[in-house]
Write a structure and sequence with these properties.
Elements (H helix, E strand, L loop, with lengths): L1 E8 L9 E9 L4 E8 L8 H7 L12 H12 L3 E4 L2 H14 L8 E3 H8 L8 H8 L9 H16 L4 H7 L15 H5 L6 E6 L5 E7 L2 H7 L8 H8 L3 E6 L3 H15 L6 H4 L4 E7 L5 E7 L8 E3 L2 H15 L33 H18 L3 E6 L5 E8 L2 E9 L7 H5 L2 E3 L4 H13 L4 E3 L3
Parallel strand pairs: 1-4, 4-5
Antiparallel strand pairs: 1-2, 2-3, 6-7, 6-8, 9-10, 9-11, 12-13, 12-16, 13-14, 14-15
Function: DNA polymerase III is a complex, multichain enzyme responsible for most of the replicative synthesis in bacteria. The epsilon subunit contain the editing function and is a proofreading 3'-5' exonuclease.
GO molecular function: 3'-5' exonuclease activity; DNA binding; DNA-directed DNA polymerase activity
Pfam family, one: GIY-YIG
Length: about 450
């Protein structure tokens, strides 16, 4: 038995909106056997644009029952039946959420007439309910009302049944079938073609624009996992509605997928990626020459157009390294901006300062020690490669860190020796870098040192 459902709501996500009208039509696969329809009084004001779209005003629902008063009836009608709707995950998320709030649990098989229509009638320009009704001559005199759209969905469903939809329906409602959870506009065939390999995947909207980038140890499993739950929040529902296609790029290792994901998020700035958009390196160690010719070192917030000598996530890390350099190379606290007041330099009497802040130490002598300190930094930042599996047996993957910075990555012949940095670069693609990527690489080699190849110098 099928339960064909349509609802009208105060907004686009269940967690922050209410149902204003619901219609449920029970169908046995041949004919309608029962019909239920009711306005619903929401707990919030119906926005004006929703009133204009549906024609359901606050006055119309003033005396209507609240959803919790209808919940028992709704649950009985849906229990043990296949829940059918046009874009089923939207309607299902609302009904399940509000039934749960009323103390009822709904766990029904789902069947989406958008997805079913794509299977039975591939290649149509649009699969919206209005366009399908026009395509098949189905009348709907009450568009954007629960009863009218539910009746139109019934007629569409019957038309699909008449055109050999049964095999597809059996596949769709099979237990754990991906067809029940995939977004309405995303073809299962696209997901089925994904490989079981590490890589980066891209979700595209109707215009082909990338709206989300993700990384995966296993592309097929990871993409499928996005659709294993149907959350009631705005972000989740907006996300599902906007996915029309998936593309991907395989990588040899999971670490390469992590790195490529970070690079692509920064390059594409996808709408639904949020975590790494907020990630920015915090502080950097910079050098510059003052008007007297002394090289100064300063810790400051990262500058967009300046390349730091070293970067830190925490200011205290920077000050700790700066003090270590000052002690080792007798650098002036004032010229390093550790002492910022106008009193006498705290380092003059007994080191580390030799009087550069008072121009008592020659510029070239002081600057030579600063250059030594910078050289010391470079020793802390070695050049090395991370070598791992390639995308096939005939190659090996390589990630290159040069003087502590991420240079790039790529693939080498399986028998190539990894012992010369400049030769290695010929095989690699150079990418932009950031603290996040560097952190990934350093954490990886700390955990798996056997994959690290260190270059001399």
């Amino acid at each position: 038995m099928y339960a064909i459902v349509d609802i009208e709501t105060t907004g686009g996500h269940a967690a922050g909106n209410d149902i204003t009208e619901i219609a449920i039509v029970l169908h046995d696969g041949e004919k309608i056997v029962q019909r239920f329809e009711s306005l619903v009084k929401p707990d919030r004001t119906i926005p004006y644009y929703i009133q204009s779209l549906t024609g359901i005003s606050t006055e119309m629902v003033a005396d209507a029952p609240r959803f919790e008063e209808l919940a028992g009836t709704v649950h009985d009608l849906l229990k043990d039946r296949v829940f059918i709707a046009h874009n089923v995950n939207f309607d299902y998320s609302f009904v399940k959420h509000h039934l749960s709030a009323a103390g009822y649990d709904l766990d029904a098989q789902k069947l989406c007439t958008v997805r079913l229509s794509r299977k039975v009638f591939p290649g149509l320009p649009s699969y919206s309910l209005g366009n399908l009704c026009r395509e098949f001559g189905i009348s709907n005199e009450q568009r954007h009302r629960a009863g009218g759209d539910a009746d139109a969905t019934v007629k569409l469903f019957e038309h699909l049944l008449q055109n050999n939809a049964e095999p597809h329906i059996a596949q769709f409602i099979r237990k754990k079938s991906a067809e029940q959870s995939l977004p309405p506009h995303l073809s299962k065939d696209v997901v089925d073609r994904l490989p079981y390999t590490p890589g980066v995947y891209y979700f595209h909207d109707i215009k082909g624009k990338v709206v989300y980038v993700g990384k995966a140890k296993n592309l097929k499993y990871r993409v499928r996992s996005h659709f294993t739950h149907n959350g009631a929040g705005r972000q989740r529902q907006d996300f599902l509605r906007n996915i029309h296609d998936v593309s991907f790029e395989e990588t040899g290792t999971e670490l390469m997928a992590f790195i490529l994901e970070s690079v692509e998020i920064k390059r594409l700035w996808p709408e639904f990626n949020r975590s790494q958009k907020r990630f920015t390196p915090s502080f950097g160690l910079y050098r510059y020459e003052d008007r007297n010719g002394y090289i100064r070192l300063a810790i400051d917030k990262q500058k967009k157009h300046l390349q730091p000598l070293y970067t830190f996530n925490l200011l205290i890390e920077g000050h700790r390294l700066m003090r270590k350099m000052m002690e080792a190379f007798h650098l002036c606290p004032k010229l390093c901006f550790v002492q910022t007041d106008h009193s006498a330099c705290v380092g003059v009497e007994g080191q580390p300062c030799n009087g550069a802040c008072e121009q008592k130490e020659p510029v070239d002598v002081y600057n030579a020690r600063v250059e030594e300190a910078i050289g010391y930094l470079e020793q802390l930042l070695p050049s090395f490669a991370v070598v791992g599996e390639g995308k096939n047996r005939d190659e090996q993957s390589c990630i290159l860190m040069e003087k502590g910075r991420f240079y790039g990555m790529g693939y080498l012949p399986g028998d190539a020796a990894v012992n010369d940095l400049e030769t290695l670069k010929n095989f690699l693609t150079r990418y932009s870098e950031n603290d996040y990527i560097r952190g990934l690489v350093y954490q990886y080699v700390d955990r798996y040192p056997k994959y690290k190849v260190v270059f001399p110098g």
